Amino acid sequence: MTYLSFSNQKVLDFVAIGRLCIDLNANEINRPMEETMTFTKYVGGSPANIAIGMSRLGQKTAFIGKIANDQMGRFITDYLNRNGIETENVVTDLSGAVTGLAFTEIKSPTDCSILMYRDNAADLKLTAGEVSEDLIARSKMLLISGTALAKSPSREAVFQALHYAKKHGVVVAFDLDYRPYTWESKEETAVYYNLAAEKSDIILGTREEFDMMEVFDHNPEHNDSITAAKWFDYAAKIVIIKHGKDGSIAYTGDGASHRAKSFPAKVIKTFGAGDSYAAGFLYGIMQGWTLEKSMEFGSASACIVISSHSCSDAMPTTNQVHEYIEDCNSGKITAS
Amino acid sequence: MTYLSFSNQKVLDFVAIGRLCIDLNANEINRPMEETMTFTKYVGGSPANIAIGMSRLGQKTAFIGKIANDQMGRFITDYLNRNGIETENVVTDLSGAVTGLAFTEIKSPTDCSILMYRDNAADLKLTAGEVSEDLIARSKMLLISGTALAKSPSREAVFQALHYAKKHGVVVAFDLDYRPYTWESKEETAVYYNLAAEKSDIILGTREEFDMMEVFDHNPEHNDSITAAKWFDYAAKIVIIKHGKDGSIAYTGDGASHRAKSFPAKVIKTFGAGDSYAAGFLYGIMQGWTLEKSMEFGSASACIVISSHSCSDAMPTTNQVHEYIEDCNSGKITAS
Amino acid sequence: MTYLSFSNQKVLDFVAIGRLCIDLNANEINRPMEETMTFTKYVGGSPANIAIGMSRLGQKTAFIGKIANDQMGRFITDYLNRNGIETENVVTDLSGAVTGLAFTEIKSPTDCSILMYRDNAADLKLTAGEVSEDLIARSKMLLISGTALAKSPSREAVFQALHYAKKHGVVVAFDLDYRPYTWESKEETAVYYNLAAEKSDIILGTREEFDMMEVFDHNPEHNDSITAAKWFDYAAKIVIIKHGKDGSIAYTGDGASHRAKSFPAKVIKTFGAGDSYAAGFLYGIMQGWTLEKSMEFGSASACIVISSHSCSDAMPTTNQVHEYIEDCNSGKITAS
Amino acid sequence: MTYLSFSNQKVLDFVAIGRLCIDLNANEINRPMEETMTFTKYVGGSPANIAIGMSRLGQKTAFIGKIANDQMGRFITDYLNRNGIETENVVTDLSGAVTGLAFTEIKSPTDCSILMYRDNAADLKLTAGEVSEDLIARSKMLLISGTALAKSPSREAVFQALHYAKKHGVVVAFDLDYRPYTWESKEETAVYYNLAAEKSDIILGTREEFDMMEVFDHNPEHNDSITAAKWFDYAAKIVIIKHGKDGSIAYTGDGASHRAKSFPAKVIKTFGAGDSYAAGFLYGIMQGWTLEKSMEFGSASACIVISSHSCSDAMPTTNQVHEYIEDCNSGKITAS
């Protein structure tokens, strides 16, 4: 059973709006960052990673965002272009903003952290007036990401993008991607997350992210069914709640819940798992696959990324994901 | 025909959220403010005026807002209480904010202006967490006012109040009350006004205010019918568009438009006309009157206020409005 | 003995830099402000009051400051002009700043307080580049006031004015006028007050104000002599430390201290006492009078102002001060 | 002839106050940064580099500054400690500030630029109250750097440090180090630079930096002698004005000017030249060498740094500088 349908009239498969930044990944890993002497530069940011993932999976993809008017900004646009992503709606900031940075620290495969530079970040300067209605109208799916809601004017740009998506029959996927440090308070966060979620067809997030959204609600046992049911009263068709190593569950408006099996991986770091999962899952949904098959594809995609040094640069092709699944099924890949 | 129904279960008729401030009205009028030496102090702010109006008209009324922790703030709460308005959800700011001020200049009955003090205003510090769900649940109607959307955290407080209203079957009236000086840009304004209007049952504003909300839309001739139709696709039942001295038109979802006759007045100043109109009109709607009769009552109410020195303090009782209408009908009151 | 000499070459006697604001004085007094319904508008701000005082005393006076581009700003310039004060260096703000306000509350002659509006105040927007070197060069004395040091760019404007004064042999008087609410911290305040005091010939302040300036120093018993001695190592010739109703003491570099007798007054409110004292005292110094006679003149001037409803508007002429002294000496005026 | 004398009673030779940041130097050089994929991390910031240089030259050195409470901050403190620099007055920020960053781009030895991250930088959060009077009192020389004057509260911390230095007979060296992007305006910059320069014994800067300081002065031909003379009226003993490849000139209060010969170098990049020059020169002055010999030592020190990949890490020891001078004199080192 499919829960969503996509227009065949639209020439673009996928457009994402939001954060474009730079990851600076520690080259010397399994140690504290204090002892890391060199870093490698990658394009980063959750919606950027998902867009790169979708493009690698063969989807016609575009991006709506804002970059700093500097070498980091130009590197980002170049990289998106080289990955076949349309960047005509990637606007250059002229106010002196900088590119957001994320220095990664990998003390061990399970002890990873990020040192963020988000002050005066260019991606949060995107305005509602800079969002291309035409680009969204031409797309089958719009992905929004919670971090873009953190500050004005980017917040308004996302709501305007949502308005265009609803107006033109574009399926909306909302990746919660909640980063507390860019927000003033949990209350502020919950208000805007809820306003955006009301307009979303697919909502993906961790249990903790949904808890934040329920700060004004009554769900004391953090019950997934209560959480999901709230959104089926609005536009949602699929709500995915992730429970870390206990796996993800997809809830649907018919009252069903769906799980997929997981795969082993030789983990280097955990960064990028959610983004590659999202790309793989949304790809499956767009192919008309079942939820279970789409979730399985997302999981395998995530395994590939967490076995690599980067996030964006490690996003797999369709063949790579299929191969990974086969290698797991045949016992060629086992947990480290 | 009535377009809205109100729950009989609810003990409060009317609750307003938003701006509470001080008007300092020139005592020596018909001259530039440079030459005004003394000012009289009144409670002001559009939703405060409307709430005072509703209470004078006999409605059980409450207010949700934030006041400065100073003499001006205490004067406001006292005045609301003395006018029978419930103030348990009027919160005192503890961050050092001040009371917003409006110095009025009355050069002539038709040449009036306002000098505003809105920096660090207490009313814009109301948070979403401070809004009482219970108070809204107990009310038949919630009035929101556009100025409260101008800044965080007051903006979030309004969206949270809207959420509670929808959840508890409370009719929402949205008085646009657009004041450009508190906003960053027209785009920002339009995004939040539109998000709030989507959830409103009654929308009242001037043609210019609706134009601002259509900055992203296509309505080149500023056609009222196109404007109203947009909102009937959401929650709206009544959209009132005011055309200054050409009168107001109420549009309804059945495609009809409604006008009321106007009354003569001996005008001292134009301030407060919109607020007293809103109070009179909403009062009529809550009595189950026709749109035409409600609009007529609003117009007469407005005439009384613009013939007086103050806004809030001049809000009439039911008897005063009926009397005014009779005096006009009998020719006792004529234009100045 | 005179401690300071003034150039005869200079055509202006006195120039002040800093705050220009509006006092809104309660008309109904001896009650809390909550119960005050009307207010009268006056020009206010410590350096403005002193400049008006000096002009009333017959000194050729000018002002360096910034006003809001509104009715309040224009009223201030008009009032200064009408009082014979040169305003060519009173600049109009174009950034949307407002005029600072001070609502006065007079509960009793000894229980007075002020409700200040200082957010986005025009006077604090004066820039160093707007200060006229030529105007200062033409003046015998420059008065600076501590509140103008509270924020950039006004802070820089004061230091630039001090630089011009030293360069052109202009005597500098520093009225401490410390208002905690405009400052970030006591440390910040002390640093800039000390930098300004190093360049000042006359320093006037209360014991509490000097305490604030000694936050980094060692003067545990708040000893006046230690306080004064510090400044004689820099440029100071006279340091006046005010001890409220215990009177003021003038310290001089020769190790002497000077006191003057005080006068009775029928006190309405305490506002403006310091400003009228400063005007009277500085006038005396500029006439070549002894410290004692100058202080006496300042005290009598202060008595006149605190017996009146306003500050600026009540500043006396030379004759009025002399008359007041005579009336006290003859027993015609006694304490209320 | 020596122009300055240093107290033998003091146990520390040198203390610097100000910026502590991270340089991220491109590993792949001679190309635009867009094409640089990896970066190496070093301690940076002009006063940090000079302090490291002084410590390498054998001087007992301490630092007064503020670091972010993160991995970058801890790396900085560790590095200073490993270089023998006392860090008891390096305070950890608790407000969520980040470490300033400088990404270097080396397109060619003569075409170098820096991409700065200075928003919310920890070093600018140092307060006046955090500066240790005792540490300064124990030091022979205090180095201040212009960038620390750019924002409050660091600006106040520098003025407080200057106050302690004057109080305790500590020689003050002022390295202008003007970075326009952290300042609001040239006027603001000039005011604070001039206030700090008034209290400095040694002032080092480029001709362009002195021009900025003269924005309110009259020196239309940018004449070095006029510039230097101004400061000899205050505390200055030595004023060094750098003219890029035309060399530096030291002016002294006796009216003399002093030049030193320059050395060849195989230049990799120009960053760090000024800092290593300052360290070498100040070292010489502290040894009681002539100005000429001190300047020569500074020049050789600079040559060593610009022939290396880093700034801080390349600071030479005394032996390395002497060897470099010998190698130049013997013709072993020639220009590239």
UniProtKB/TrEMBL annotation, chains A, B, C, D:
Pfam families cross-referenced by the UniProt entry: PfkB
Reactions catalysed, as given in the entry: 5-dehydro-2-deoxy-D-gluconate + ATP = 6-phospho-5-dehydro-2-deoxy-D-gluconate + ADP + H(+)
InterPro entries: Carboh/pur_kinase_PfkB_CS (IPR002173), DKG_kinase_firmi (IPR022841), Myo_inos_IolC (IPR030830), Myo_inos_IolC-like_sf (IPR023314), PfkB_Carbo_kinase (IPR050306), PfkB_dom (IPR011611), Ribokinase-like (IPR029056)
Top-level EC class as recorded in UniProt: transferase
MF terms (GO), sorted A to Z: 5-dehydro-2-deoxygluconokinase activity; ATP binding
Pathway(s): Polyol metabolism; myo-inositol degradation into acetyl-CoA; acetyl-CoA from myo-inositol: step 5/7
UniProt keyword list: ATP-binding, Kinase, Nucleotide-binding, Transferase
UniProt xrefs under PROSITE patterns: PFKB_KINASES_2 (PS00584)
Enzyme Commission code(s) on record: 2.7.1.92
Single GO BP term: inositol catabolic process
Family: Belongs to the carbohydrate kinase PfkB family.
HAMAP family referenced in this protein's UniProt entry, alphabetically: IolC
Function: Catalyzes the phosphorylation of 5-dehydro-2-deoxy-D-gluconate (2-deoxy-5-keto-D-gluconate or DKG) to 6-phospho-5-dehydro-2-deoxy-D-gluconate (DKGP).
Entry protein name: 5-dehydro-2-deoxygluconokinase
Species of origin: Paenibacillus baekrokdamisoli
Taxonomic path: Bacteria, Bacillati, Bacillota, Bacilli, Bacillales
